[in-house]
Amino acid sequence: MPLYFKGLICIIRDCTALAIQVNRIDLAAAPLTQTPEREDEVKFLSPPFMKFGLAILMRKRDRSPDIRRIADLADQEKIQYGVVSSGSTAMFFRSFRRSQYSKMWSVMSSRDNPTLVDSIEDGVERVRQSTDSRPFVFIGEEYTVKYHASRKPCDLTYVDGNVQEYDGEYHLAVRKNLPQSTVDRLETSLGRLNDSGQLRQLYEKWWVERAECSLPSSSTMLATSAMAVLVPAAVAVVLFGFSSSE
């Protein structure tokens, strides 16, 4: 029989913060990454519903054969680059002590010329407003980067980050005192959703059929999904339409 879930569901990116404040959100459905701070307040479900890497968002006119991965940005000074100042991407760069990523973090967080941004939207806007003489690119989670590259006015593109050291995962989250029996059933249904091919169907429906711009051929992978639409749809399938029986 389907798993019917009676509780409050939050479908926004700041779900965990909202759940902490009001202590009444049962399930947070958004592209959430696990961080130590969030793990102190909520329980993340396993398995993750998506895995991802990093990517570079840039103006189409700034695309260059010299920039084929994120590490290439560390060896040049013409193109400025930045990340959201808080979150898992910034944490990744900040955590490296000796590598090109540590060097990049020092550049981005420099007091003289900081290139950190407050939000994804600020990063996208800064890319669009950058100039030929001082181009700017935004580094972020590949789902988000590729989503913005697929939106009109189709002036942006992306480059895969090819960062082997980065393994990103998106999870659903529930309040810590949710009954374990409910947690088990949610995780079982989520695992079956991953194995059944239904995420692929959601991807085809909400991403392939709705992209507004053509993207590089590598974007045909499942990993390039419009998360703001895919996540709520996936949750609806998990909670209301997917069998939880053996």
Brief synopsis:
The chain contains nine helices and nine strands. The chain has 246 residues and is an alpha+beta fold. The protein has two domains: 9-51 and 167-241, Periplasmic binding protein-like II (D-Maltodextrin-Binding Protein, domain 2); 54-160, 3-Layer(aba) Sandwich (D-Maltodextrin-Binding Protein, domain 2), CATH 3.40.190.10.
Topology record:
Blueprint: E1 9-10, H1 15-22, E2 27-32, H2 36-39, E3 42-44, E4 50-52, E5 54-59, E6 80-82, H3 88-95, H4 100-108, H5 120-129, E7 136-141, H6 142-149, E8 156-160, E9 168-175, H7 180-196, H8 198-208, H9 227-241
Parallel strand pairs: 1-2, 6-7
Antiparallel strand pairs: 2-9, 3-9, 4-9, 5-7, 5-8
Helix pairs in contact: 3-4, 7-9, 8-9
